[in-house]
Amino acid sequence: MPRIKERARTAATEAIAHYQATPGPTRAPTRLAIAQLHLATAQTALGEPEAAIATARQALTGDRTVQSVRGRARELDAHLHRHHPGLRLVRDFTEEIRALGV
């Protein structure tokens, strides 16, 4: 299972690099945010909740947080609570996304 999680991290990291390298007018901010949330999910599964939340915060800083991004953020929040219950950091993240209307 660790190999699958590492492959998920690698794929998400590659997708992020691709979307960040895309020139201005053809940039895809929603796809970038989704890729960042996929990376955050992999980080959560790999036991890295701090990194996951930092990555998720990057995904949620855009000025256009569409439904698909909000839904993925809610899924990540549930994943964080499943894998890292009781962490203050996770509870704080939950409050942050609620304040954003996620």
UniProtKB/TrEMBL annotation:
Source species, domain of life: Bacteria
Protein name: Transcriptional regulator
Organism of origin: Streptomyces amakusaensis
